[in-house]
Specification:
With 92 residues, this protein is an all-alpha fold. It is built from 5 helices and no strands. Helix 1 packs antiparallel against helix 5.
Length: 92
């Protein structure tokens, strides 16, 4: 869980370093919240970023899309952990 926090700080810092995007099909920088709410856009941007990682590593859209993906993964892990806690507590 600490690893996610470190990545979140690092990615947020990188996102603030640039004012425009290098992804040609995007005309603006999308926020992490927008990527959280648009699975198709998030997947497309992450795919583009992964294909051009050296060039797009610090692109704000890549950073924000990956941040959204990390937040979703963290929420899923927390949900699964809570299910396991609930299961163990109900077995007592």
């Amino acid at each position: 869980m600490k690893r996610i926090g470190v990545w979140a700080v690092l990615l947020s810092a990188l996102a603030g370093c640039h004012s425009d995007t290098k992804i040609d099909y995007l005309n603006r920088i999308y926020t992490t919240a927008e990527y959280l709410n648009d699975e198709a856009l998030r997947a497309k941007v992450i795919s583009t970023c992964d294909a051009n990682d050296g060039e797009l590593l610090s692109d704000p859209n890549c950073v924000n899309a990956r941040m959204a993906e990390l937040q979703i993964a963290q929420a899923e892990r927390q949900k699964e952990a809570q299910k396991e806690i609930d299961r163990l507590n109900s077995a007592k």
